Structure formats: C-alpha cells, structure tokens
Amino acid sequence: MPRVAGVDIPRNKQIWVALQYIYGIGPTLSQKILAEVGIDATTKADNLTEDEVNRLRETIDHGYLVEGDLRKEVNFNVKRLIEIGSYRGLRHRYGLPSRGQRTRTNARARRGTRKTVAGRGKRRGVAKK
C-alpha cells in the first residue's frame, strides 16, 4: 500500500480516486497533481513504480497543504474568528450554521438531535380564546 502524506492510499483503486483519501485533496486537485507529476489518472495505485510514488510524495509534500497542517490551519482560522468576536465566530461558538442557512427548521447536523420541550405542540381539549 503506497503511503503518501502520512496516509495509506488504497491499492485497488485508480490513483486519481486513491489520492482523495488524503485530507485536503479532492477530485480536481487530484487530477491537477497527477498532470503535474505526469502519471496517467486511470493507473491503479498498486501498479505505480517506486519512482512515481516518490515524485507524487515530493509534489504533495512541497506544493500543497494537506492532512495535519491543513487541519491546524482550519482550526486556527475558526479560533481567530471566535476570538475577534465576528458574527461567524459567534455562530461557531454556539454551534449554529455560519453561512446563512435557516435554523427555524432543518440545521439538525449543527444543532444536534431534537430536545423535547414541555408545553409545546397541540393540546387536546383546549379551545383558542
């Protein structure tokens, strides 16, 4: 199993897909890196030569922010927003969506599961005044 940027990439997949197992590399960046290194994107990861793996490793290590460094930078950016007290920082602090989505309904991924509140909903036998 080739190891690139501290991640074991799967052997049985095409290399453009296997590179996406590295945090920070998606489909577009994967294709760009392979074009830069000169490797055919449809090659299986276990068919790569040692020289190709080394070139891939060098290109990713020196040219792109991936894995731990990228995670650190993202966390630092969020902490900075929280520290300066910006609107986006407050939304992060309270665990709410920070990009303008509605929260009256939906937003369950950020807000967590529903919390039942007493006295909410339709009550039987009570007429409106």
Word description of this protein:
By secondary structure, the protein is mainly alpha-helical. The protein has two domains: 3-64, Helicase, Ruva Protein, domain 3; 68-111, Ribosomal protein S13/S18, C-terminal domain (30s ribosomal protein s13, domain 2). The chain has six helices and two strands, in the order ββαααααα. The protein has helices at residues 15-18, 27-37, 50-63, 67-84, 87-94, 108-111; strands at 3-4, 7-8. It has a two-stranded antiparallel sheet. The longest helix is centred in the middle third of the chain and has 18 residues, at 67-84. It is elongated and about 80 Å long. It starts with a strand and ends in an 18-residue tail after the last helix.
Radius of gyration: 23 Å
Average pLDDT score: 88
Number of separate domains: 2
> Helix content range of the residues, please?
40-55%
Report the order of strands and helices.
EEHHHHHH
Category from helices, strands and their pairing: mainly alpha
Low-confidence stretches are none
User: Biggest sheet: strands side by side, in what order?
Assistant: 1-2
Query: β content, as a range?
Result: under 5%
Tell me what the CATH architecture of the largest domain is: Orthogonal Bundle
N- and C-termini, Cα separation: 72 Å
Profile the largest sheet: 2 strands, antiparallel
